[in-house]
Design goal:
Blueprint (H helix, E strand, L loop, with lengths): L6 E4 L23 H17 L3 E4 L17 E3 L2 E3 L11 H11 L3 E3 L11 E4 L2 E6 L7 H9 L3 E5 L12 E3 L5 E3 L6 H10 L4 E2 L2 H4 L7 E2 L3 E5 L3 H9 L3 E5 L16 E2 L8
Parallel strand pairs: 1-2, 4-5, 7-8, 10-11, 13-14
Antiparallel strand pairs: 1-15, 3-4, 6-7, 9-10, 12-13
Amino acid sequence: MDATRQRFLMCRPTYFAVEYTINPWMDPSAPVDTDLAVRQWERLRQIYLDLGHTVEEITPLPGLPDMVFAANGGTVIDGRAMAVQFRDPQRADESPAYRAWFEAAGFEMYDPKHVNEGEGDILLAGDHLLAGTGFRTAHASHAQLQEVFGYPVVTMQLVNPRFYHLDTALNVLDERTVAYLPEAFSPGSQAVLRRLFPDAVHATMADAKVLGLNAVSDGRHVVLPEQATGLAAKLRDRGYETLGVDLSELRRAGGGPKCCTLRLRQGKASQ
């Protein structure tokens, strides 16, 4: 297995908080330790740097506590960036901030015509774009994604509100292999996944509940929540090297390593 060096975009959780409820993980009545969230995030960033990846940072903005979840800020493939349109008004102001960053970084920009929550729901897997729908990203956006990026789009119907984004229920390990939680998907989507990825790693509900599938893989190393011990063992059995990280404070808002990490594919570095 060969690791591919990656370029990531991240946002420090300077203003992280749980002030509203837009997914089942969020409880505004439970206290949040922002300083702990920052330390956990910094550890994730350092793991990427130690693996030889490049990490760019976008400036966090006050009043946007979920801006730390950079994966929702856009989809970037082959030097093209699709901006996002959030379903929930609480996150709407993140979109222009991320769009401005992509534009300044030299990416060819496209604006969404429908609700589209970036790499939270749009995952490049080999020659296909797996596109989630059911809770956030609108099914109507999938046609635009195919036109912009030129990859066949495969719709993935999510059915469990706890796994509201595709990246909470499925992880792309390399161009040929994914890991996923079968029961997070409709029967038809499960059948498609079996056809496309017959050698996929199946996660358990126990590991999915600690956002074990919200992981980041470079083709050899898989960075995932340290609490997902069963999934980590399965991945090691397949030959991957796993690196556990504790993002328990960010999980209070439904986020893990992948939520904090947007992959930047090509484009001139800036900022």
